[in-house]
Every structure is written in structure tokens, then in C-alpha cells.
Amino acid sequence: MTLEPGDIISTGTPAGVGHARTPPEFMKAGDILETEIVGLGLLHNKIGG
Fold it and tell me: Full-prediction pTM beyond 0.85?
């Protein structure tokens, strides 16, 4: 698949995934989400509160 400038890459998990973990784990203010595509780059997003 070829990505073009302006393409949107959407990722995620179904609702309830964090609740199903033992112990439950959820994102919170201050957490950092990192998404990387090799050859393209690394994106850092800080979760706000």
C-alpha cells in the first residue's frame, strides 16, 4: 500500500480492552502514546487532562 501526503492512518482498540486486563489499565493524563512507521517517522502524543 502506498501512502500519499495527507493520508490519515487510524489505529486503536475496541472499547473495553483496558478493562479486560488484569489489573485493569487505562490511559491517563500525562501518558505518552508513541506511534512509529519505519521509514516514515515517530509520532509522540501526550494525553491531556
Answer: no
Q: How many domains does the chain have?
A: 1
CB 36 within 8 A of CB 42: yes
Q: What is the pLDDT of residues 1-49, one digit of tens each?
A: 888 999 998 877 778 888 888 999 988 999 998 988 898 899 999 999 6
Q: Which residues of 19-36 are buried (b: 16+ CB within 10 A; e: fewer)?
A: eeeeeeeeeeeeeeeeee
Domain residues for 22? 17-46
